[in-house]
Amino acid sequence: MRKIVKTVFEREIIRYGFVGLISTILDFAFLNITYILLGNIDNHLWLATASGFLIGTINGYIMNSRWTFQYETKGTEAKKFTKFAIIGLVGFALTELIVLGLAHLLDVDKNIAKLIAVVIVFFWNYFANKHWTFKKHT
């Protein structure tokens, strides 16, 4: 069993997905916590979504740079984090459009809308980070 788990987690996209799962759990938690703290007011949904995104992004960068892509960032931490953040901001914009569009225009529950956004943005983030932020130079 241990060998199977090790083999599965040797695959980069599986690691990225695992990190994404942890980041998504944090994202959802902070989305809901912030939403509750702001009084469950729909006009504050954008801020709740943003807080979840920020926590998820920080976690994702740390785990992906060190574990998923095993990229040596020493001396380039600011540059790599900036690239990761830019990709994340594009993902954030997509997330906002999807969540707000589905929640406000189609009356979809905010958590269902967020889940749909997570799936779409996962693929954008993975391929953009793999080929730009953590690109292996040969």
What features would you describe in this structure?
The chain is mostly helical and 138 residues long. The protein contains five helices and no strands. Helix 2 (12-37) packs across helix 5 (110-133), helix 3 packs antiparallel against helix 4 and helix 4 runs antiparallel to helix 5 (110-133). The protein is globular, with a radius of gyration of 16 Å. The protein starts with a helix and ends in a 5-residue tail after the last helix.
Blueprint (SSEs and pairs):
Elements: H1 2-9, H2 12-37, H3 45-68, H4 77-105, H5 110-133
Give a nutshell description of this structure.
This protein has 138 residues and is mainly alpha-helical. It contains five helices and no strands.
